[in-house]
Amino acid sequence: MAMVGLLLASTGIVNANDDANKNKRPLTPPAAKAKPAAPPASHPAPARASSPPRETHRNVRQAAPRNVAQQGQPVQGRAKPPKPDKHNRQNTGQAAPQNTAQQGQPVQGRAKPPKPDKHNRQNAGQAAPQNAAQQGQPVQGRAKPPKPDKHNRQNAGQGGYSPQPNSPGSRPDAPRQTQVARYPNGQPQTVRTSNGGMVHRDTTGRVREVHTPGGAVITHRADGVRRVEVVRPGNRVIVADVHGHGGYIQRPLVVHNREFVQRTYYAHGVMYAHVYRPITYRGAVWQVYTPARYYRPGFYAYVYSPWARPIAYDWGWGGDPWYGYYRGYFAPYLAYASPALWLTDYLVATTLRQAYEDRMEAAAAGSASYVSAGQPGLTPDVKQAIAEEVHRQVELESGEGQSMASKSVPSQASYDVPPMFADSAPHVFVVSSSLDVSSAEQECAVTEGDVLQLTAAPSNATSADVVVLASKDRDCRRGSVVSVPLQDLQEMQNRMRETIDQGLADLQSRQGQRGMPKLPSAAKGQALDAPFASEVRPDASVATEIAQVAQEADRAEQEVVSQATENPAIAADPVTIGLGMTIDEVERSLGKPKDIANLGAKRIYVYRDIKITFTDGKVSDVQ
Asked: What is the pLDDT of residues 361-374, one digit of tens each?
């Protein structure tokens, strides 16, 4: 028995030692021995259990939910905190329910909770709900709270990624930024505002053209007259000049299944209508003036032929203000050898009178700047060139009249090419509306009554180089070559033909008056109306609509110019003008002046807000 008791005591001692050693083992294995599961080869390995989990970058818009073991609940037993990866996110519009071990229940025993990965995280428009550990609950045990980074922020209207305007990935309706193009001297040339407007200035800083967000195009001509053009539904175009005191309405006109365009003009309280035929040529539509009446062939032959002897004609406007204004530029012939020469002075005088009246009305509105009359510009050779062009236009009308007399309407073939392109002969244009054009030197202006010559129309271009045959003070220099849009040249030719038509009517009605000889019998006879003449009716609302467009343009232009001026990014660097600078150096910095005063050895340049005096070609004073 003693031997048995001794053996039992020894066994109890051994078992007690084993139990003691077992109780000394740690609850969690050492970190060095932790073996995380190997991730897929295409993804970085997850962090160790003792570090907060990091997420790889994904193209998702909300943070993934964290399990509770990572969010502050105590950990018991040997279970390790779950390691998130990218294979157990949900891809639905709502959060998936979490298991109880992930929602705050203590983990017991050796079983490990499931590991979240990218296939059971949410991919919806709102972030998944966060657990309590991230929302302020105390953290117990060894688990650390997760650290938010830039990939688990919410992007549901607050925070997160926000694309910049005009950047890749931004919304199509993102606001546009203001864009500025500058002259070499740093002054703004063209400013495109964020709301779709545009402001173009010349080198002196004056506003030349404004595009409003509503689609109106506003042009400030060199003579101070403003032009507004707006397109309305139904292909109606409204043009307002002189602050609503003049302009026209253009609309389609169909007669005998042939398309025309009618313009109802309004000027100085009088309205009248003209008709144009649209010609599609070289990818553009050209509006070509078409007379509403034609004279008998004998009358056109009378216009071509010289009179039996030269006549002196009393125009009756020798004392009018407009003639006194332009006396230094234009003087009528003392005697006329032919009706074509009489029509030449009629054309120039009508153009200058209209320009003067427009300028007077613009001055009443406070927008015109006056210049003194320049040196004589219409020399005999220039007037002869105009007379030859008048002769060509009369011949063109005579041919159209004969075609119409033989047929009810001229054939479509005769309408296929604008007259300006129909021959290879040079053409002369009397400017009927001021334009800013470009030359080899810089931008300059041509104004009403200036004379241009086109040697040959370009084969494939929207502009043509023309020579300035005659010009006034600050206009493009005589002899210079300037580029003018072909559509503007077409409008000059239209206005020339309209004025010649008016002159032909006066030539016929004034026979035997003021020195005009009587018509020969072959030239007499009633004019023949064009087939569309009976369908032409001026739009009675022309004055009201033009005034309305002008008023709308006033408000819209003010808003666009204010936005283009007040933006601090548009301000230009200051320009320094110093004593001794040459005229060319000043013009490169400030552009062409508003006014020039020649005082012999001195010359004074007047800009918008500065006056510069040159002595012997160099700056001597700045005010």
From this structure: 766 554 444 344 44
Return the bridge partners of 248, or none. Answer: 239, 265
Beta bridge partners of 445: 436
Kindly write down the DSSP assignment for every residue of 375-417, as one continuous string: S----HHHHHHHHHHHHHHHHHHHHHHHHHHHSSS--GGGGSS
Question: Is 128 in contact with 64 (CB distance < 8 Å)?
Answer: yes
- Answer yes or no: are the C-beta atoms of 519 and 507 closer than 8 Å: no
Please give the structure tokens belonging to residue 527.
Answer: 């004019």
**600, 609 contact by CB (below 8 A):** no
Q: How many C-alpha atoms does 429 have within 13 Å on its Cβ side? A: 31
In 3-state terms the chain splits into helix, strand, coil percentages (rounded to 5) of: 30, 20, 50
Query: 260 falls in which pLDDT band (50, 70, 90)?
Result: very high
Claim: this prediction has a pTM higher than 0.70: no
pLDDT digits (tens, 9 = 90+) for 277-320: 999 988 889 999 999 999 999 999 999 899 999 999 999 999 99
Considering only CA atoms, which of 185, 191, 205, 181 is closest in space to residue 566? 191
Contact predicate 249/539, CB 8 Å: yes
DSSP state of 178: P
Burial class of residue 6 (count of CB atoms within 10 Å of its CB; 0-12, 13-18, 19+) = exposed
> Rounded to a whole number, what is the distance in angstroms from the first to the last CA of the chain?
134
Domain layout of the chain by residue ranges: 69-93+114-155, 179-244+554-570, 253-539, 583-622
Both structure tokens of 27? 């609850």
CB atoms within 10 A of CB 71: 24
Region for residue 74 given its phi and psi (left: phi exceeds 0; alpha: psi -120 to 50; beta: otherwise)? beta
Is residue 60 within 8 Å of residue 155, measured between CB atoms?
Answer: no
Instruction: Please give the pLDDT value at position 457.
Output: 79
